[in-house]
Write a structure and sequence with these properties.
Elements: E1 9-20, E2 23-34, E3 38-42, H1 49-56, E4 64-69, E5 72-73, H2 78-84, E6 85-88, H3 100-110, H4 116-126, H5 142-153, E7 160-164, H6 172-187, E8 191-196, H7 199-205, E9 208-213, E10 216-221, H8 223-227, H9 244-252, H10 254-260
Parallel strand pairs: 3-8, 3-9, 6-7, 7-8
Antiparallel strand pairs: 1-2, 1-4, 4-5, 9-10
Helix pairs in contact: 3-4, 5-6
Amino acid sequence: MSDRPTIPISISISAVTKSYGDHAVLQGVDLDVPVGTIYALLGSNGAGKTTLVRILSTLLKADGGTATVTGYDVTTQAADVRAAISLTGQFAAVDEILTGRENLVLVAELRRLKDPGGIADALLARFDLTDAGGRRVGTYSGGMRRRLDIAMSLIGEPSVLFLDEPTTGLDPQSRLEVWKTVQQLAGHGTTVLLTTQYLDEAEQLADRIAILHQGRIIADGTLAELKQLLPPAKVEYVQKQPTLEDVFLAIVGHDDAHAEGSPR
């Protein structure tokens, strides 16, 4: 019997498949996401990242296989899954006419939580938006909108947060603001499943990284473990350590990556 401790699993995916007509998007995805980790899911355009997130968040039914989130089956216990998760899509779902505080209060009221105003004020403070809380969201920068969007996703304290390409279209400074926010979430015990095409984003944020290619997970591990998949770097004057981009292209192949839309 092994003395290794059992790691609690927040998301468990087994042999999940999904097709659209004759096009197979997911062809048997297997993945376990430990509790309280930031797990990055990498893949080229069309690899199936968003499809998988939609299945896990009960917005789409898989054709085959099973998946559980916080122990609940995404098909047979969809209501329980929805109560335990939150989803932030590729574009900020905020009301630009309302103020930041009003957006937060509205979501808290829709969730029928006590003291919506207090919840809103606490989240504004947590996400460094207190000074902007009384302003209309239409005046916010891209990074501020995304931080507000993530703050809204945390109302009700979900155990799992799905972030589907959260920094798409943001400028470098706004991306750094979102990165800081995501790192703080994991520090509070939230499990984060992050899909991204930005390899540097995965390097900065993820505890573990999975690569989705042609409908399957073809690599899974820490950044250090993935780097071990490459041959040792040649030592000339300075040893060049492989980047995550080197690892990704070596695994999926340069031609395939460019054909599907290479990660930016």
